[in-house]
Amino acid sequence: MPVQHLTADDYILSDWGGGQTCQMFIYPEHCRYADRDFIFRISSATIRESPSTFTVLEDYDRILVSLEQSIELAFQDASFLLKPFVPLSFSGADFVSSTGTTTDFNVMMRKGTEAKLTILHNEEQYKIDLNPDCIQLWFVAKAEKPVTIGAMKLAEKDSAVLHHTESVTIHSTIDIVADKTAIIFQVDMYLDND
Question: For the chain, how many structural domains are there in total?
Answer without folding.
Answer: 2
